[in-house]
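note to self: dont lose this again. the chain is below, predicted strucutre after it. 341 aa total, dont forget to put it in the shared folder this time
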Amino acid sequence: MTQKVKVGIVGSGSIANTHMKSIIEVPNAELVAVYSRNKETVQKLADTYNITPYTDYQDFLTNAGIDMVAIVTPSGTHAELGIAAAKAGKHVVVEKPIDITIDKTNQLIAACKQANVTLSCIFQHRFDEAVQDVKKVLNEGEFGQLNFGAARTTIYRSQEYYDSGAWRGTWELDGGGALINQSIHYIDLLLYVMGPVDEVYAYTATRAHERIEVEDIAVATVKFKSGALGLIEGNTTAYPGFSTTLDIFGTNGSVIIENDNVKEWKFKSGLEYENKQTEMETNVSSNIVKSNQSFVKQYTDVVQAILENREPLVTGEEAKKSLELILAIYQSAREGRPVKL
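---
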C-alpha cells in the first residue's frame, strides 16, 4: 500500500456527504469511489467529489485502487456489507451502530481478523475536545472514585424524519429507535468514561410518532461493575429538541458535558478547565451535522492506524459494548426485569 489510504464510500444517504467531506480533509487519505444502488444519488456524489460511481457492490469491491471502505447504509446492513469488504481485502469503517445484533457483529469482527484488515466504527464524539479532556483527567486520578454517570439525549425527530426512509423506525434495519440510533453516541461515551455495566433495568415507550415499530422514549437505571450507579435517557419526543448531556460525578470532582462542550468542571484540587468552548457538533433539533471536525479526527486515527499497523481507538470490540448495553435495555423493557450483562 502507498502512504495514502484510498477510500470508497458505501451508501449515498444524507450522512454520506459528512463522511466524504471529512475524508478529503484527512492527511494520507484519498476519496476515490462511491457505491449505491441508487443511480441518481450515486452519480450526484461522484460528480460533486470527482470520484468513480458504482451501482454494483461486487464491481466496487474488485477495484484494487480501494484500500478502505466506509459503510454508511442502514444499520442492519453494516455487518453483511463489511464482511464482503473484508473478504475482498478492504479495511472497514461502519457508521454507528456496528450492526443491530451481537451475532452479526461477532461475524464482522471475526471476518476482519481473519482477513487481517482494520475494523472501526464511527463514534466521533470520543474525539471531541471535551471528552478527551475528561478522559485525560480521569486517567490522572482527578475524579477519585467514580460514583455516578448519566447519558441523556433529549432531542426531537419529526414524523417526517421517520417517514423519510422505509428502514427508519423498523426493528429489521434500524434495530430500534431513540436508543440505538440517536442516543448511542452518548451511551458509548458513558461506557468509555465509567467502564463496563453489570446490570440494567429499563422502560421503553412509543409516545409521539406513528408508523414506527420502535421506541421514541427509553429510560434505564444502570449499575456499573465498579459499583457506581447511573441513568440513561433516550428521547426523540422532546420538541423542539434540547440537549445531549453526559454527567460524571466522582468523590473528588464532577464534570457535565452538554452538547459536546464542558458545562461544569469542578474538582477539589482546584483544577480549572482551560480549553475554550467549541462549536456544538450537532444541531440537536435536527439531523444536520454542523461541524465535521470530530469525524476528521476519527478518520485520521483510523488511517494512521492502518499505516502504522496498530489498532484504532474505536475497534470492533469497543463498538460492540454500546450495542450490548442497548440490547440489554431492550430486553429489560420487554421482560420487565433487571438484565445482567
